[in-house]
Amino acid sequence: MSMHIHILRDEADYLEALAAYEAYFDNAPEPGSEAGDRFELLGLLLAKYEEDHFPMPTGDPVEAIRFAMERQGLSQSDLSDVLGSRSRASEVLNRRRALSVSQIRTLAREWRIPVQALIGEAKAA
């Protein structure tokens, strides 16, 4: 399954690369293999495109979460699934509870939010 890997110049390139990258999720390739290298390169290209075209707000974890929710079409219910409960998601979004280290790691991994965007102080409501 060899695909020509190239710089992502537009949304069509981005979506094609994202589909190719996500195809590996159910069957992760062996690191260092040809497929593993392709997977890693696609991830780097996607990260660069997202960094350039979808800049993440910095300094306020709640704004970073809201931005990711909007960009990815996610809801508070989706956040509840990640954080473990509806009340926890509500408390975080309403700035009544800070994220734990575990929650930061989970959000960074599952929603691809940079850790740096999640570790700041939430602004007062």
Automatic annotation (TrEMBL):
User: What molecular function does GO assign, one term?
Assistant: core promoter sequence-specific DNA binding
- This chain belongs to the protein called Antitoxin component HigA of HigAB toxin-antitoxin module
Domain HTH cro/C1-type residues, every copy: 65-118
The domain of life for this entry's organism is Bacteria
**SUPFAM superfamilies referenced in this protein's UniProt entry, alphabetically:** lambda repressor-like DNA-binding domains
Which InterPro entries did the record assign? Answer: Antitox_HigA (IPR039060), Cro/C1-type_HTH (IPR001387), Lambda_DNA-bd_dom_sf (IPR010982)
Q: What does the record list as GO biological process? A: regulation of DNA-templated transcription
Q: Which organism is it from?
A: Brevundimonas aurantiaca
Which CDD domains does this chain map to?
Answer: HTH_XRE
Annotated PANTHER family = ANTITOXIN HIGA
Q: What is the lineage of its organism?
A: Bacteria, Pseudomonadati, Pseudomonadota, Alphaproteobacteria, Caulobacterales
